[in-house]
Design brief:
With 298 residues, the chain is of the alpha/beta class. It has helices spanning 9-20, 38-50, 62-69, 114-125, 146-157, 177-181, 192-198, 201-218, 222-230, 239-255, 260-282, 287-297; strands at 27-31, 75-80, 84-87, 103-106, 134-138, 163-169, 184-187. The protein contains twelve helices and seven strands. Helix 2 packs antiparallel against helix 3, helix 8 (201-218) packs across helix 10 (239-255) and helix 10 runs antiparallel to helix 11. This is DNA polymerase III subunit delta.
């Protein structure tokens, strides 16, 4: 399947070429502004490494589908949001020891600490389940503590077999020089193609229609909110788009907030939206149920 990523075709072609010529780096740093496709490209690249089809990534084989859903045993996704750290793949860290199941830990920490770095390191040291690449993607890598970054240095200095580590960051200057120098940097830019994609009249009109309907629903009764979700397609339809429209709306509200108390309330809503977007994107969470949870909370 030929992948065309809006605004980042050169980066994609370079990574795909490096894989096909067997000249990949063992560690990459994807850096650039937020919300421009760094993480999306990282996930697609992991599919290339483990796709079962000759035309990689096919997007249809079991490995590609499991990677997309966050269920692939040789792929670990680590991130911090305002209030959450997620581990996808084989580990569920509900205690000091791994549970050997996919899962998630919610925490109020805004940093990725040394314990999480060690667990990611241990994950890469394990043998691949399927004989392909063991892969770790660390989103918001600028939130790695100094101790966590120093812990990852050994992995960067002594990579084992078919493993790959991708750091994703919008503030790469916060990473240690020793980390920065051991990763191959791939820069992402907001360019004309992305801006045109995000600001077409058709897209703006559609977003306004969705937002106008959502604002009415948010001011309605619980019965009206549940009726709205019930009318969505069985698979959730455009639920992710609905979440993203609300995400952009509340971000604007946050910037224009008349008081600190109002801004804090908006921040809590944004944290919940970010977490639910993650769940419906990378896990088997029901999109319709996620939207119902959001309506109950806000």
């Amino acid at each position: 399947m030929e992948i065309k990523l809006v605004g980042h075709q050169k980066q994609w072609d370079y990574l795909k070429s490096s894989f096909e010529s067997e000249q990949m780096a063992h560690a990459y740093l994807f850096c650039g502004e937020n919300q421009i496709g760094k993480k999306t490209l990282a996930i697609e690249f992991i599919k290339i490494l483990n796709c079962q089809d000759n035309n990689k990534p096919c997007g249809k084989c079991k490995n590609c589908i499991d990677i997309e859903k966050g269920n692939f045993l040789d792929f670990l996704f680590l991130r911090t949001g305002e209030e959450s750290i997620n581990f996808e793949g084989m580990f569920s860290y509900n205690s000091a020891l791994p549970d050997l199941k996919s899962g998630e830990v919610l925490t109020d920490k805004k940093e990725i600490g040394i314990d999480q770095a060690r667990k990611a390191q241990d994950f890469l040291n394990l043998r691949s389940y399927f004989g392909g690449y063991k892969a770790v993607v660390i989103d918001n890598a600028q939130n790695l503590t100094t101790e966590a970054q120093n812990c990852l240095l050994k992995t960067l200095e002594e990579p084992k077999g078919k493993t790959i580590l991708i750091l994703v960051s919008n503030q790469p200057e916060r990473l240690l020089v020793t980390i920065f120098s051991r990763c191959q940097t791939i820069k992402f830019f907001t360019n004309k193609e992305i801006n045109e994609f995000l600001n077409t009249p058709q897209r703006n009109k559609k977003e306004k229609e969705i937002l106008d309907e959502l604002l009415k629903v948010l001011d309605g009764t619980l019965a009206e909110k549940f009726a709205y979700t019930k009318n969505l397609k069985e698979d959730g339809g455009n639920t992710k788009e609905i979440f993203e429209v609300l995400q952009r709306y509340f971000r604007k509200e946050l910037l224009q907030g008349p008081s600190l108390q109002y801004s804090k309330a908006i921040s809590l809503k944004l944290n919940l939206i970010d977490d639910l977007i993650y769940k419906i994107t990378f896990t088997n969470a029901s999109p319709k149920l996620a939207l119902e949870i959001l309506f109950l909370e806000i």
